[in-house]
Recover the amino acids of this structure.
């Protein structure tokens, strides 16, 4: 099984990558050394590992969040990761800011987080995708941007593993990457008015599987029956930050068959623990 | 059959709300919950029940409801004209309803969000641990005509009155510095505090727009900021430097910079500001904000101490009639606001 190691390169800094402005990247003019600890409102601390999206900063955030969770500090309500940060929300009347800051600083000093291994408990999802056809009409366009034929593009996208860098914009919606450098293609200038739930869209070395019908500036290269948000289910969210995903190519008839029997919302995906 | 309220007519975008659904931030779901959490707590106190139960949140206008079975109700939040079988009902109070009685709730006299609470809460099924609709996330739907709101029932209070806290006309909003405040130049921050804003026409449970004369409030390098965590209360600047104060259904991350975060005690004042209401922002230190937060929680915990019985007697009836006459220019059925 190919494993996803944290790469050292920065991912195309200073370029807008948001689907619907959801996620931007670029330089942060905040002065300070990294990792940087800042407050969030009255009840949060944010530990930021880099001002731009570097893959190893994303890995550091995933690893650091797991360490904060494992420490089970009194007064901590919830934790979350963004592209390069960890958000720790706590009750400030129960545990003072200085105490949380001190604990975070202690944990930060304990290891080199930018080279820390990814946490345990992550899963690998293998998701069937119809690439191209009228179900995903922008495969050709995206392939051309990447300097490939459609067949080469499918070969490329089904032979690599992406990681859930963060979840946001909509509930359960994963920003996944990094794709190989050939896929550093810009967003289109105009928004596609809507792509359906389960659409696989691509830009700036990242892919998203949409959790609801939405407009997007990313290119619609594939279609899945995978539902990342299933509010009616006992486990409403399929993915966690840090999970990994691979794609297998199927035909439109296969997708029809999957959709006919998709009560779980898995869309024919297989899931396994990453050992 | 379980007692409850049958909705005969209702304004748009009324939803069932409770304190929200925290804990899913890591999966991209904001907490949601009542836009005015104080109003939710007041209703719980007036009915003598726990603060986690669900109520009906009514933006700008109420509706017409019929009791199916004996009920206790409370009315809180933005004051709206209310009648029970055409008798005026006190706002910020709890009342008994007999089967078949008709409750009519009109447009907001001030503020935006009125709340209709039922004894035992609105007993809807829990979805992901809460009953709140979160329309931005696709959870739940607006309550429509014909819907039935089942009451949880059980023992509790009615006939109680609370003095409301004035938070329905805009005013001063206190903010703390947050992770991106340092991206704004000193003179921009000073101008932000000195500016009188008016609540704009774009407002919903995700956020409200604040308008002002003159130039906007952009951050340095505003367009190159990495997407980062967002929390309710954040004052976010759009690309043109126009502030939006984010409310419970905001996203969890975003690329627009935030100049600061409204403290929880003042978020109801933001949500309840009607279009055009004057708003000013003032930075407070984190220490001051925590002191205010302690007082806010204390106040919410001890609302019951501030209650008094709503005595139905001849004097009160005449008071109510007088009130009705004095207030005659504002009928219960004024045009509902349509901007929220």
């Amino acid at each position: 099984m190919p494993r996803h190691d944290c790469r050292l390169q920065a991912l195309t800094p200073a370029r807008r990558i948001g689907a619907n402005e959801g996620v931007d990247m670029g330089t942060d003019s905040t002065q300070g050394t990294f990792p940087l600890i800042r407050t969030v409102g009255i009840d949060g601390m944010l530990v930021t590992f880099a001002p731009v999206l570097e893959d190893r900063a994303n890995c550091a955030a995933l690893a650091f969040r797991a360490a904060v969770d494992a420490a089970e500090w009194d007064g901590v309500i919830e934790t979350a990761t963004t592209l390069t940060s960890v958000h720790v929300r706590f009750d400030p009347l129960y545990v003072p800011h200085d105490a949380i800051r001190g604990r975070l600083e202690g944990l930060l000093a304990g290891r080199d987080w930018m080279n820390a291994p990814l946490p345990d408990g992550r899963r690998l999802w293998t998701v069937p995708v119809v690439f191209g056809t009228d179900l995903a009409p922008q495969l050709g366009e995206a392939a051309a941007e990447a300097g490939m034929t459609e067949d080469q593009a499918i070969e490329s996208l089904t032979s690599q593993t992406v990681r859930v860098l963060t979840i946001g914009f909509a509930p359960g919606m994963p920003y996944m990457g990094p794709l190989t450098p050939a896929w550093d293609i810009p967003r289109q200038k105009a928004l596609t008015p809507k792509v359906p739930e389960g659409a696989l869209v691509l830009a700036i070395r990242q892919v998203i599987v949409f959790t609801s019908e939405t407009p997007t500036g990313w290119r619609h290269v594939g279609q899945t029956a995978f539902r990342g948000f299933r509010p009616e289910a006992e486990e409403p969210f399929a993915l966690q930050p840090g999970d990994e995903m691979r794609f297998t190519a199927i035909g439109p008839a296969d997708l029809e068959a999957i959709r006919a029997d998709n009560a779980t919302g898995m869309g024919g995906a297989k899931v396994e623990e990453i050992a | 059959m379980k007692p409850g309220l049958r909705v005969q007519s209702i304004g748009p975008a009324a939803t069932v709300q409770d304190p929200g659904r925290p804990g899913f931030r890591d999966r991209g779901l904001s907490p949601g919950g009542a836009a005015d959490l104080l109003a939710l707590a007041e209703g719980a106190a007036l009915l003598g029940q726990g603060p986690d139960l669900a109520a009906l949140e009514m933006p700008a206008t109420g509706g017409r409801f019929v009791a199916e079975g004996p009920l206790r109700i409370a009315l809180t939040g933005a004051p709206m004209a209310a009648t029970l079988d055409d008798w005026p009902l006190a706002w910020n109070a709890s009342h008994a309803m007999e089967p078949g009685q008709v409750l009519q709730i009109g447009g907001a006299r001030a503020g935006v969000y009125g709340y209709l609470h039922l004894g035992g809460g609105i007993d809807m099924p829990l979805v992901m641990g809460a009953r709140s609709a979160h329309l931005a996330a696709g959870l739940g739907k607006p309550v429509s005509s014909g819907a039935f709101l089942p009451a949880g029932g059980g023992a509790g209070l009615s006939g109680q009155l609370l003095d409301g806290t004035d938070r329905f006309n805009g005013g001063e909003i206190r903010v703390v510095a947050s992770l991106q405040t340092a991206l704004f130049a000193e003179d921009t921050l000073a101008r932000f505090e000195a500016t009188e804003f008016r609540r704009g026409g774009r407002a919903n449970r995700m956020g409200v727009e604040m308008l002002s004369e003159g130039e906007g409030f952009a951050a340095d390098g505003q367009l190159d900021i990495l997407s980062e965590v967002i929390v309710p209360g954040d004052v976010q600047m759009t690309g043109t430097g126009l502030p939006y104060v984010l409310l419970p259904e905001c996203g969890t991350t975003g690329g627009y910079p935030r100049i600061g975060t409204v403290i929880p005690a003042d978020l109801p004042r933001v949500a309840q500001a009607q279009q055009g209401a004057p708003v000013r922002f003032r930075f407070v230190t984190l220490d001051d904000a925590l002191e205010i937060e302690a007082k806010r929680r204390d106040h919410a915990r001890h609302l019951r101490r501030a209650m008094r019985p709503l005595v139905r007697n001849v004097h009160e009836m005449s008071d109510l009639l007088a009130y009705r006459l004095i207030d005659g220019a504002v009928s219960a059925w004024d045009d509902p606001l349509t901007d929220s």
Remarks:
- Residues 102 and 108 of chain A are 10 Å apart (CA to CA).
